[in-house]
Amino acid sequence: MAAPSDPPGALRRRVGVIQEFREFIARGSVIDLAVGVIIGAAFNDIVKTLVDQVVMPPIGLLLSGIDFSHLAWVLKADNPATAVDERVAVHYGALINAGIKFLIVAWAVFLLVKMINVIRRREAEEGPPTPPAPTPQESLLIEIRDLLKAQAGRDGTGS
């Protein structure tokens, strides 16, 4: 609601902005983007589980039981005499896990784009679809049209 001190057209402008915002949100591209973000977030959870729970344990087993997520370069050790956690470390194992996650996501996106490209190439090779043959009624109408054009051409009154 417009305040008493608002200029007379302020309420109309607000309603116009709200309507414009509704139209913006209702556009297909915005909705497609929102769906893509939601699917991407869900895909992120799948990839995280795949890397952390499926891929990394066998790799760690092959490398004598190393758990990559706990690999770190300790810059300053924790002092057991104090209650405060003073440990400072560079967790490069987390970086290795993130790199593997990236490779999995990149591979999945590559396969998706490759599949879309194959489908597009097939469609391009097929060419445009041929129009269906005219029905008997359409054929009769085409003959009548052609006869009328020919008759109009002989009479000299053609268009």
Structural features, described:
- The longest helix is centred in the N-terminal third of the chain and has 35 residues, at 28-62.
- A two-stranded antiparallel sheet has the order 1-2.
- 2% of the residues are buried.
- It has helices spanning 10-26, 28-62, 92-126, 136-155; strands at 73-76, 88-90.
- The two termini are 62 Å apart.
- With 159 residues, it is mainly alpha-helical.
- The model has no long low-confidence stretch (mean pLDDT 82).
Short description:
The protein is elongated. It contains four helices and two strands, in the order ααββαα.
Topology overview:
Blueprint: H1 10-26, H2 28-62, E1 73-76, E2 88-90, H3 92-126, H4 136-155
Antiparallel strand pairs: 1-2
Roughly how many Å is the radius of gyration? 34 Å
Strand content: under 5%
Report the biggest beta sheet as strand number plus sense, adding barrel if it closes.
Answer: 2 strands, antiparallel
> Which regions have little confidence, pLDDT < 50, spanning 5+ residues?
none
User: If strands are numbered along the chain, what order do they take across the biggest sheet?
Assistant: 1-2
- H/E element order: HHEEHH
Number of strands: 2
